[in-house]
Amino acid sequence: MDESVLDVPACLERVRVGNEDASRELMQHLHPLVVKIVRSHLPRRTSEEDLIQTVFVKVFTRIEQYRGAVPFEHWVSRVAVNTCLNQIAHEKIRPEWRMADLSEEEEKVIQNLASTTGELVPEDGLASRELVDKLMAHLCAEDRLVINLLHLQQKTVEEVREITGWSGALVKVRAFRARAKMKKHLSRIMEEMA
Fold first, then answer.
1. What is the pTM of this model?
2. Which of 10, 28, 118, 134 is deepest in the core (most CB within 10 A)?
3. Taking CA 61 as the corner, what is the angle to CA 57 and CA 64, rounded to the nearest 5 degrees?
4. Same domain (yes/no): 81, 106
5. Higher-confidence position of 48 and 124
6. 76-97 confidence digits (pLDDT tens)
């Protein structure tokens, strides 16, 4: 069903009496909204798909709590944001990485880094990139930006300065501090493996 013509109140009534087609229609209507919210509030150790599914489970199991005082989409937005914030708070209880947070390939890359001083073998490339992404997830948005521009996109300090509007000194200091934070997180992971 086209989401722009969905009669949400009528669909909600059909959902409340157990109509599965209405549930699917409502889910299709809400999916873009929920995806947008989850992507903007995604905790680092939770997959996007899992969190989206959790939001929809909460919406459908608590649908009787919706009283109609606000548009249904606003109520769903509140459920989605609260679900994300609760997951972020849950992850803050244990902010450090665990070996279980890494894939087998990423663990292999770390073991390779710990045991050799040579270059990574080419087949470790994708796992290396995924590991870098996980290390960057620990950084604030500005630090991620400077690492991405300088090291992943290989832009010069001058180019980064023009893109961000920061001074050249600020670009260098941010990059240095961001690399230090990434090294600290990597060291913790390697210590855990020892």
1. 0.47
2. 134
3. 140
4. no
5. 48
6. 999 998 888 888 777 666 545 5
The domain of 105 spans 99-193
Q: Which two tokens stand for residue 57?
A: 């489970």
Specify whether the CB–CB gap between 112 and 104 falls below 8 A. Answer: no
Q: Tokens standing for 63? A: 């649908």
Residue at token pair 């087609």: 21
Domain limit, last residue, from 60, 93, 126: 93
42/29 Cα distance (integer angstroms):
21
User: Distance between CA atoms of 111 and 188, rounded to whole angstroms?
Assistant: 13
In this structure, are 105 and 189 located in the same domain?
A: yes
| Single residue among 43, 70, 93 that ends a domain in this structure | 93
